[in-house]
Amino acid sequence: MTTRDPMVQVTWTDPVTGKRGYVVVHSLVSGLATGGTRMRAGCTQSEVADLARGMDLKTAAFNLPVGGAKGGIDCDPKDPEARGVLERFCRAMRPWFDDHWVTAEDLGVPQHLIDDVFASIGLDQSYHAAITRAPDPQRTLQRVHAGLHTPVPGGLALGDVVGGYGVAQACLGVASAWGWAEHETGVAIQGVGTMGGGAAWYLHEAGVPIVAVADAAGTLHDPDGLDIPLLLELRDCYGEIDRDRVPSRVRRLPREAITSIAADILVPAAISYAITERNADDVAAKVVVEAANAATTPDAEAHLTARDIPVIPDFIANAGAAAWAWWLLLGEVGAEPADSFLRLRSEMQSRIGLLLADWDATRVSPRRTGVALAERNRAQRIEAEASGEATLAIP
């Protein structure tokens, strides 16, 4: 499953700005694939292909009835032209959105923006391709909207925080598997956007000290634990913290210092390829939990494994939002946040326990164990669909 070529690779050129966009569909299951659409300066087709492959693993590892895809646009999301570029990209990709590709937020593209763009091109929501398969699409759409926009404690919407909650549960799963007390488990997080900020919030709620966070302006460090609610309140719309209001006791370090902070868990949650051969020696944590897609290059991961530092792969650690979205589509969870959190906590921690049990017993990397799990799940689903025992039913 991981070595085969993608089914479809599309390169698009914006007729107005000349900027490039890419779609890679790695696999279709029941005629559908899922994966977000990102926007960043320097985005490449090979990056999008890596991410689509990761989505294929993610959906299989959580036994979801859908394949993996990804979209990416080489454009700075702060560019005044960015909204128009995204809308023209979505118009061009509408045949895929109509029938096969369920997309969502990703780096540089928040969910409210992708939904606004879908509305502007005449589609109700970015889950359109799946919703239209329901017997009553309008009823399913209402259920999905209710789940996405249900408020959670703190005032944010469930759809905006569930991915970060899943990453927090991955970290808590590590602590549980290794018998660490939560209040003594220090975590460093690179990135405080939707994923990193959500993870920081829920880890803080669980009593886990966040000893460092990094954004585009640098790293903030307090070995006794940062005031996470305050720092999240100080973020702007790009996930950058207003330094003028950060307490004076907090050390201000360069952005790249986050990898060398003394912590039990390092969570790269901002960009792909954040840990490379160049900085793998700097990692001071006991375990890396990938909240960003493709956060660690293969060579860097091999180096960390040789140093006895396991990497919890992205297709497990950050799968919470994708898994939850499909549970919501399939009617397996509703608009009550407690039900969604309970399901995600159970499923995430069980997988983390499996990965670390193999690591502790044999030093097999968590990625290899996760890939094996995904391949078993996908093979069983393909066999069940071929025999007619499994069909995609969206209520």
Name the strands of the widest sheet in spatial order.
10-9-8-7-11-12-13
How many domains in all? Answer: 2
Tell me the CATH superfamily of the largest domain.
NAD(P)-binding Rossmann-like Domain
Residues in helix, %: 40-55%
- Secondary-structure element pattern, one letter each: EEEEHEHHEHHHHEHEEHEEEHEHHHH
Number of strands: 13
Distance between the termini: 29 Å
Can you tell me about this structure?
The protein has a 7-stranded mixed β-sheet. Strands 1, 2, 3, 4, 5 and 6 form a 6-stranded mixed β-sheet that branches. The protein folds into 2 domains: 8-58 and 69-133, 3-Layer(aba) Sandwich (Rossmann fold), CATH 3.40.50.10860; 158-372, NAD(P)-binding Rossmann-like Domain (Rossmann fold), CATH 3.40.50.720. 51% of the residues are buried. It is built from 14 helices and 13 strands. Helix 7 packs parallel to helix 13 (337-362). By secondary structure, the chain is α/β, with parallel strands linked by helices. The chain is globular. The protein has helices at residues 45-61, 82-92, 94-99, 111-120, 128-131, 137-149, 158-177, 194-205, 228-233, 298-306, 314-317, 320-329, 337-362, 366-386; strands at residues 8-13, 20-25, 33-34, 37-40, 67-74, 101-102, 187-190, 210-215, 218-221, 251-253, 265-268, 287-289, 311-312.
Note the main attributes of this structure:
Rossmann fold, alpha/beta, about 400 residues, 14 helices, seven-stranded mixed beta sheet, six-stranded mixed beta sheet
Short description, anyone?
The protein has about 400 residues and is α/β, with parallel strands linked by helices. It is built from 14 helices and 13 strands.
